[in-house]
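Hey, can you fold this one?
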Amino acid sequence: MFKLHAKDCKDLTKKGKDGQYISKKDARGIYKWVKVNATRKISGKHYDIHDNGNRPFRVFVSDNGAKDKKVASTSLSEILERINTSPRKSRFTSAISIDGPAGSGKTTLARQISENFEDGSVLTIHMDDLYNGWEDALTAQLTRTLVNQILAPASQGKAVGYRKYDWLSRSFGDLISHPCPTLLILEGVGSGQRATRAFTDELIWIDVEVEVGLQRVLRRDGDYLETEMRIWQIREQAHFESENTRDCATIRVDGNFFI
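Sure. Predicted structure:
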């Protein structure tokens, strides 16, 4: 059994080794696989569901049977395969964004991809290093930095450069420069915005329930951040809706299960 995100998995069915299963909501409002005695017709789209051990890999399939580009996965091997086989927009580098709510597991996934990527150099840039503090984080300044200083140069095989934000001094440091990598990973809220999607080959979105994500952040960084984080959750949600980030993702991961 594994958890399913309600937004993605309502009314899904799959065949198991011992019979047919359907996603059902439990008392906590979480969808899980429940064995049923009869096959239930899936409304809307059809779905192929493949199990990789206990990690689900769900491929969205259109009504005519042609596979959509979007997939939902919690399998690192499947994500790496997708990154390695997807067409590149640049002949110099492959660029991906990992976006989603705070506490969803973006940094963890970025690290795992970096550690297991075997086809060349990897550069991971965290949005936390580019924000101009809490108040001026998801603004045009972030967009300009991402496009003008990182993505556009990398797409031409040039070095990327940016100034890292110091959260203690509340100021940007000296310019940091990196040679163009084989794989460029942009990680954090805002990395999957419209402006970056013209350059990135994959947009990975990680879902997580609001309170689950909040508690993860507080356990990691300290309870003193609760007020700022609750304000941040409102801002990031407004940003996601404005940029249509989740719907434009090419890979979706259920962070409630993944981490």
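Residues 5 and 31 are 6 Å apart (CA to CA). Let me know if you want another pass with a different chain boundary.
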